[in-house]
Amino acid sequence: MGGQEQAISLEPEKQKLLNEHSEKHFTAGEIVRDIIIGVSDGLTVPFALAAGLSGANATSSIVLTAGIAEVAAGAISMGLGGYLAAKSEADHYKRELKREQDEIIAVPDTEAAEVAEILAQYGIEAHEYGPVVNALRKNPQAWLDFMMKFELGLEKPDPRRALHSAMTIAIAYILGGVVPLIPYMFIPNAAEAVVISVVVTLFALLIFGYAKGYFTGNRPFRSAFETTLIGAIASAAAFGLAKAFHA
């Protein structure tokens, strides 16, 4: 049961139909998810930190220093979290693959019955799924792949997924985190810089929320409003708390 790819053989007419038909599906879901995680936290957390420090009457240089430190630490933390999550997913897949492989060898009749049960759930009759079950039993690798996908609902992860996830989340966090800090780079007075930071960051959250809704299939305008609202509440809470404790 090696990991070799199985050659797919189709009738010429069906192959021709497939070649002529082109479906447009969005298949970069994992990358978009990582970008959303990184940018959303990157925009919100440093934004709230900068607003809080501004509320405590810190200078722009202090806000900027603390903000850069937070962005660096946050990017490392978020990237590491993404790496560990993807690594855990890959390890889980390997464990289940080995377990399913052993079961096919040890109790093939039971596994074949499970294939029949899965197909029956799709309304396929016994006389129809019988040949399918028999064909899978003759092809152990295809049988194993079928059980992983349809019994366990697991897709084989990309072996480079963990590293890619870590890098994507970290870079997205940095890009998002820099936005609320830009005004503090040019305006020495933090009280003035925070106003510009709020405007710039809320606008960025609005654009990001719209894009997130568009790519995830949700209502873009609602997503934009919700994302901006969350960022505004976070920064207002941080600013208000800093003012209250500093008073």
UniProtKB/TrEMBL annotation:
Topology of this chain in the membrane: Multi-pass membrane protein
Catalytic activity: Fe(2+)(in) = Fe(2+)(out)
Entry's localization field: Vacuole membrane
Entry superkingdom: Eukaryota
Keywords recorded for this protein, A-Z: Ion transport, Iron, Iron transport, Membrane, Metal-binding, Transmembrane, Transmembrane helix, Transport, Vacuole
A Pfam match: VIT1
Transmembrane segments: 62-86, 166-187, 193-211
CDD domains (alphabetical): CCC1
Self-association state and partner proteins as the record states: Homodimer.
Protein's job: Vacuolar Fe(2+) uptake transporter.
Family as reported in the entry's similarity comment: Belongs to the CCC1 family.
Domain topic, free-text comment: The cytoplasmic metal binding domain (MBD) is located between transmembrane 2 (TM2) and transmembrane 3 (TM3).
Name by which UniProt lists this protein: Vacuolar iron transporter
Organism of origin: Stylosanthes scabra
Gene: VIT1_1
